[in-house]
Amino acid sequence: MNASVFVELRFWVLVVFSLVLPAGIYAALLRTRAISRPAVLGFGIALVLIAGVDVYLLQSMAALARQTLSAADDAVFASEVSIALYVLPAVFGGIGVNLISHVLLHHLTEAEKRFEREHPGG
Asked: Of 53, 51, 63, 55, nearest to 5 (Cα)?
């Protein structure tokens, strides 16, 4: 067992899933001038999945921190401070759900308009 969770592979995977991947997705969304609905849907699903992986990794790191001797591990992952770490997955999941909802609502609006054109007065 390592003396600290900060040298574990899971910690670095957490950093990638919490910071690098979402930053890349946001950069791609902001940089794009035109984007298809399937791409927006894909980005939304990716953000929701990233949020799920983040929560799993945070739980895993908290359990691992309780087993190490390092006080820094406990201070970050196994204390009340760790609640702040859950803000990022909540934000990613929320934005992902909003992207998915946007695509679905846009599709339903178009489907309703198409129905009205095909079935006038009914």
From this structure: 63
